[in-house]
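Data deposition worksheet. Section B asks for the primary sequence of the deposited chain exactly as it was used as input, without tags or linkers unless they were present during the calculation. Section C holds the resulting structure in C-alpha cell form. Section D is free text for depositor observations; keep each observation to a single sentence. Incomplete worksheets are returned to the depositor.
Section A, Depositor: J.P.
Section B:
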Amino acid sequence: MGVTRRKDAPSLNQLKKLARLYRRPIEVFSLPYIPKDFPQLKDFRRSKDELGTAVLFMMREVQEKQEWLHNFYAKSKSGKVAFVGKYTIKSDPETVALDIRKTLGIGIAPTDVKPLKYWIEKAESKRIFVALSSNFHTRLKLDSDVFKGFVIADPFAPFVFLNSEDWDQGQLFSFVHELVHVWIGVSGISNDTGIIKDRSELHLVEKFCNDVATRALMPEDTLKQFIPSKGETLFKHIAKAGRRLGLSNRSIVLRMQQLNLFDDSQAKELLRDADDAWKEFLAKEARKPKSSGGPNYYVMQLRRNSKAFATVVMDNYKKGRIDGDVASRLLNVKEGNFGKFEGYIYR
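Section C:
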C-alpha cells in the first residue's frame, strides 16, 4: 500500500519516524480507519498504579516482535513449544520447579558467568525470547517500583520482558517468576515477585509463580552445598550462596528458614546481617563516580530485542525472506548499521 501525501500531511521521513516511535507499520497512517491494537495483557500487580506511557509503548514493541515470531513459527515445521501451558496453578509447585530446571538444564552458574545471564541463555536456547531494557527512550524511563516485567505465554514463541532498572538479583527472581507464567500458559504483567511474607492481596497466579520460582532458584539440595556439615551457619555462608546463585542474601535466609535449615532465632540474626550488608552495598554504590560515557548502543539494542529474536530476524533478512524495512523496524536498527549489529549478535 503506498502512502499518499497532501500538502498538510507529514513527509515520508516524518512518517517513518512516527512509525518507529509508535511501533506501527508506516501504511497504518494512510488507513481510513483506526486499526485494532494488540490485546491488553492481564495486570497481576497488587498495586494498580498507572503503568505509564513508557511501559505501554514497550509492551506494544514486544507484542509486535512476538506476533511476528508467532507467525514465523506457526508457518514453519518447528511446531509449538512443548512446555508452554504444561501445568496449572493446581499443580505441585515442586514438580513444576523441577521441570523448569530439567527442561532448561539448570545447575549452578559457572563462576565467570553472572547467574542472570546464565538463566537467560539457557532459556533462549529453548526458544524462550527474553528482552531487557530500563527505558523506551531517554525521556521515557521504566520504573521498577511500578512493574518488574511481563510475559506473553504463547505456545509458538513465548516472550519475556524484564525491567532492567531493577537490581540483577531482583531481575533474576522476576525472570524465573515469568518462566512459571510460561509453564502454566498465563500471560500478564507482574510486579510482586520474590519471597513475600504478606501474601494476602496477591493474585493466586502470582502466589503460585513465586512459590515455584523460589523452589527453582533455591532447591534444597543446592542450598545445602553452602552450609557447613558441622557447626553453625554463618553470614559468610549465606553471602557465598547469594553470590553463586545471583540472589539477595535476604532471599537465601528466608528460603533456608522455610526449609528449617536453622531455627527462627538464627534466621532473625542472619536477616539483620543481610539488611546491614545491603545498606552497606547501597552506600558504596552511591559513592561510585558516575560514568561519563553511555552504554554501547548495539549491546543495548541486542538486550532490548532479545539476542534470540535478533538472530532469527537477521538470519531471515540475510536469506532474503524479509526485506530491510521490515527487519529494521523489528530490530529498531537502521539497515545501514546491520553490519555492525551483526558483530554483536553472532558473538
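Section D:
The CA atoms of residues 151 and 160 lie 4 Å apart.
The beta strands are 129-133, 135-137, 140-141, 149-152, 159-163, 188-190.
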